[in-house]
## 1
Amino acid sequence: MSATGLRACLLLGSAREPRLATRVLTFVTSEMKRRGWECDIVDPLEVNLPVLQTPVFFYKNPDDVPPVLNDIAAKIKAADAFVIITCEYNNCLPPGLLNTIAHFSPFAYSKRTSSIICYSAGMYGGIRAAMQGRCLLGEINTVSIPNVFGMPKVQDTLTEDGKPLDDHLVSGAEKHLNELEWYTRALKVARDSDASL
Ligand SMILES: Cc1cc2nc3c(=O)[nH]c(=O)nc-3n(C[C@H](O)[C@H](O)[C@H](O)COP(=O)(O)O)c2cc1C
């Protein structure tokens, strides 16, 4: 299957430096682009949003919205799918991810697919955070695909420049992206045929 014509917004969780997130992001974007996806990235380390005080939909005058929030809003609006790339802190979703998502209305994400790619330095691959991600992704009106792509001990299975050292990663990415593409195309057809959107 090809993802030509599909656009994803990749939301990173980790805002640490240095971090394992970078190699996971490099691997995932490389796989997605190879399949034809257009990829926008929202990285909490780069956008450096304050801990939520004023969500974008609370501004009375649109001219007062900080440009960084408008830039992210444009990526959210353009997306056919949201891909959460998340670590796990204290068995929870990381604050950088929650903070980014909460700056925007839950309706900003509506009627698009979402997927969860999680990783950790340990043996559980961030799966406990992923299960919380499922709830969150439903609350922001996205359709979370069934497959969760978890990467345990990612420091041993991906090189710093995002090259896989384990076949599990290659087959896992393929399965995950096949499914994401199927659901994303299905929802895109539905959105394109809905005159009210
Ligand atoms: C505050 C904090 C909490 C953590 N909690 C967990 C955890 O609950 N489960 C886990 O598997 N690893 C946990 N770790 C270890 C992370 O898997 C590891 O630090 C990983 O590198 C985090 O991803 P990052 O480097 O992209 O930030 C934690 C790390 C930090 C800094």
## 2
Amino acid sequence: MNNVLKMREHTYLANTYNRFDVALKYGNGVTVVDDEGKEYLDFTSGIGVCGLGHSFEPWVKATTNQLKDIEHTSNLFYTEPMVDVAEKLCKAAKMEKVFFANSGAEANEGAIKAARKYAFDIYKGDRTEIITLKNSFHGRTLTTLSATGQDHFHQFFDPFTPGFVHVEPNNFDELANAVTSKTLAIMVEVVQGEGGVIPLAGTYLQAIQDICDHKDILFIIDEVQSGMGRTGSLFAYMQYDLKPDIVTTAKGLGNGLPIGAVLLGDKVEDIFEKGDHGSTFGANPVACAGANVVMDYMNEKLYSNVLQMGDRLTTKLKEIPQVIQVDGLGLMLGIAIDPSINARDVVNACIEKGLLILTAKDRLRLLPPLVISEKHVDKAVAILADVLADQVKG
Ligand SMILES: Cc1ncc(COP(=O)(O)O)c(C=O)c1O
């Protein structure tokens, strides 16, 4: 890539990202192109964002038309795009109301605030704890870092937000023991994305639902990574018999523009009163115009493609000798590889061969656009198989 760009980045950007040596310039469907004209099959979708593919024509049209109409207004006024997306989300998810934020972390902050306000209103300050899971990831703000159940995120930035208790996923006894008279909510990802793409057991999710139902504890599901069709349904929780009180989404909702949403169920639909929460950019009309297009494509045809391509990928990946295990749901897949192989080296070698993939902890992670076809799956698996075989040869 262009070394001058790399040096300028190093000079002027905060040193927070370990970027790969690729400068991307264009995107179209499942393909992205770098500054030297090299094409890549994009099995990252910008970390689970561009589910409908890059520069998806109806999305480009809707957002650019909206830009020409009005690019922004404050939340002191009404706009049609925000009401349209909210209505579509509520009807599709069987939730009551929506608060719009700009990212996953912000959506989770909103969810945590809504849950704490419920505890304040109903339990007058007696309930102060939210149970989250070890190996979870809920965002990078101080409170969502505190919610995140991974110790290495709990350093450098003290003091963290109190009020979070972390328990081992899929351990029923530990969960039951952690629930006390102080517990106000239980918050989980149905599939732990950053934690390695590990789905929770359906029986465990059901146990959480039962505890929440019996003790009036709020069930918060973070669908920031697993939502918007990624797992073969609008939200992953819909594949289980669950009725969360609060659901968060972001990433794929915008397909490339920043938007997050907190979906509020009947217990908490009126918990926020005027002035309790807000955001300058939340419900931005251009982002909402894009999200409206995304919502219009959330249908059985797309979900069925996600499930079929997910199955094909999983089956073919399992045939690669260096692949030890494939976990996930739909097109959210984590691949455990031979421990002698370094996942980041694999990503770099895939880049060389024209395939973009991700890591999650020591695993490989695939989050391709939801619109991929068999030829994309086959090409990606062929490149990955070659790369893994080369890594073993050294
Ligand atoms: C499950 C989950 N929650 C929250 C977040 C944070 O989202 P954002 O980076 O948009 O703030 C992420 C990001 O990866 C995520 O995977």
